[in-house]
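Tip: read the tokens left to right.
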């Protein structure tokens, strides 16, 4: 599959480079607003909208924005969309606006959005950049919703407002408090790593679920990797190899 195709960009954001469970980005809203599944879903979808639109506009203007001011320009574009989204939430979803609070304007400095703008959108066409933002946003939304659902079930005995635990169930209130977010995130990440280890032991290709760079730029399918553009992924030439090349010449 083409690394810039819509399907690949969506799969990359949801599974391969899930911003929360794989890359461990955007931890502030992940830990703070996931006291319920609804809050997690709301923050995730809000971030998705900003990600997709900012990626598309930054990609569209990538040949116009001077390189020296690209970061301030990216922040202005992102802040504009965050302001629009914040006003829409305040007007039409006031309960969600109140629940998310200060974390809505803080989307401006979310490292997921700025990171995708710098590493992918500023170097690729509009359509792949749009789907890259949607994929990353959906991956973020899925992770936050799952974390919020687990915390809500264990800490309140309900999910999305529906109470389904038996009357004898005593909620673990710690899961709707700050420490609960760390516990749930750690458990989900551990499960993901366990699945990867088991798959590798069975001889399966688990490279689709990975964290970090394998430095194999020749066979890497991620055309949005910053190492391809800044040269950090190039193999180093040692002094011995340099002398050998000169002798051959």
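Filled-in amino acids:
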């Amino acid at each position: 599959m083409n690394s810039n195709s819509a399907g690949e960009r969506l799969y990359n954001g949801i599974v391969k480079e899930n911003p929360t469970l794989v890359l461990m980005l955007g931890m502030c809203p992940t830990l703070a607003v996931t006291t319920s599944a609804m809050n997690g879903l709301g923050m995730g979808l809000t971030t998705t909208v900003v990600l997709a639109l900012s990626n598309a506009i930054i990609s569209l203007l990538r040949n116009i924005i001077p390189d020296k001011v690209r970061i301030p320009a990216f922040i202005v574009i992102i802040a504009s969309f965050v302001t629009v989204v914040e006003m829409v939430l305040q007007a039409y979803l006031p309960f969600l606006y109140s629940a998310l609070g200060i974390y809505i304007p803080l989307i401006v400095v979310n490292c997921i959005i700025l990171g995708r703008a710098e590493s992918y959108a500023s170097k690729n066409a509009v359509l792949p950049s749009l789907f890259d933002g949607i994929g990353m946003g959906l991956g973020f939304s899925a992770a936050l919703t799952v974390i919020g659902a687990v915390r809500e079930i264990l800490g309140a005995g309900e999910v999305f407002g529906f109470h389904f635990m038996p009357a004898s169930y005593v909620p673990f209130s710690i899961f709707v408090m700050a420490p609960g977010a760390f516990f749930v995130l750690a458990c989900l990440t551990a499960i993901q790593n366990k699945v990867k280890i088991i798959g590798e032991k069975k001889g399966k290709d688990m490279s689709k679920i990975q964290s970090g760079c394998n430095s194999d730029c020749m066979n890497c399918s991620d055309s949005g990797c910053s190492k391809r553009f800044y040269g950090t992924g190039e193999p180093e030439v040692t002094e011995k190899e340099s002398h050998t090349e000169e002798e051959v010449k």
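The first strand starts at residue 158 and ends at 159. The two ends are 40 Å apart (CA to CA).
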